[in-house]
Amino acid sequence: MKGQEWYQESDVAESYEDKRFSGGGRFIDRREKEAVLDALGPIEDKRILEVACGTGRFTVMLADRGADIVGMDISEAMLEQGRRKARSAGVDESLSFIQGDAGRLPFPDDHFDAVLAMRFFHLAPDPEGFIAEMRRVATEQVFFDTFKRYSARSTYNWALPMGSRLYSEREAKELVVGAGLELAGADHDFVLPYGFYRAIPGWVARPFRTADTAIRGTGLGERIATVSYWDARVPE
Q1: Where in the chain are the domains?
Q2: Fewer Cβ neighbours under 10 Å: the N or C end of the chain?
Q3: Keyword Transferase: yes or no (predicted)?
Q4: E-strand spans in 11-85?
Q5: What 3-state class would DSSP assign to 91?
Q6: How many CA atoms are closer than 13 Å to the CA of 10, on its beta-carbon side?
Q7: Helix axes 10-20, 25-40, angle to 10 degrees
Q8: Who's near 135: CB < 8 A, 6+ residues apart?
Q9: Burial class (CB in 10 A: 0-12, 13-18, 19+), 41
Q10: β-strand pairing of 182-189 with 138-147
Q11: Domain 2-231 belongs to what topology?
Q12: CA–CA separation, 191 vs 210, rounded Å?
């Protein structure tokens, strides 16, 4: 998938967060972090692996809240941005960043309490293999997000600088079950796709996000949302 090559470019890593999480993109960042924290629950001293951690948005946030966390990514350029962020936040001694392949996680079975992957499965060439590896190293929980196939996301997907995989709800649930996991919860959000929010300033995005959130609270909002968050658990 061409997105893998695009993702590892050094200039992409340097501008990644400014392009995605400034202006209207701040609403995306806020919501994604909320979804992660809600799903993981109490995290102090919890052993967590973040697969495809990128620039460490979630890795650093979770370390700051007391998690024992490892961030892994295939892009050394992205990891360097994460290390800088960790130093700036004063948590560089509380976490580890390593370069690695999500298809062959360099950890023994049942090594982490929880494993998460955000902004990853839309680039995954082998989603079944990747989630199986996440399940292998997790003792309790696997958390990930997907972009929805039958939504406004599909209308601009062709314009992205990367290949992007979209999932129906059935396909995402099959990933969970196929990995030997049980679905504990799912949340769906952003009727207006991420690209819309990233393209406009924050003051313009605010009323749209207010309306978007109101729609989300209805049955219609869940059906036409562009993003899904999946909380899967390892069976006891």
Answers
A1: 2-231
A2: C
A3: yes
A4: 47-51, 68-73
A5: coil
A6: 1
A7: 90
A8: 115, 142, 179, 180, 181, 234
A9: exposed
A10: unpaired
A11: Rossmann fold (3.40.50)
A12: 11
Structure token pair of residue 134:
């996440």
- 3-state class of 146 per DSSP? strand
Could you tell me the two tokens for 171?
């396909």
**Residues 6+ away with beta carbon under 8 Å from 227:** 145, 146, 147, 148, 153, 188, 189, 190, 194
Q: How far apart are CA 63 and CA 198, in angstroms?
A: 27
Distance CA 131, CA 129 (A): 6
Q: How far apart are the first and last CA of the chain?
A: 36
| 84-93 tens-digit pLDDT | 999 999 999 9
Biggest CA-to-CA distance, the chain: 47
Structure tokens at 168: 């129906």
pLDDT tens per residue, range 24-72:
999 999 999 999 999 999 999 999 999 999 999 999 999 999 999 999 9
Instruction: Identify whether the C-beta of residue 234 lies closer than 8 Å to the C-beta of residue 135.
Output: yes
34: tokens are 């909320």
In whole angstroms, give the CA distance from residue 50 to residue 47: 10
According to DSSP, the residues that pair with 143 across neighbouring strands are: 116, 231
Q: Is 198 helix (H, G, I), strand (E, B) or coil?
A: helix
The β-bridge partners of 29 are: none
Q: Tell me what the mean pLDDT of segment 179-189 comes to.
A: 97
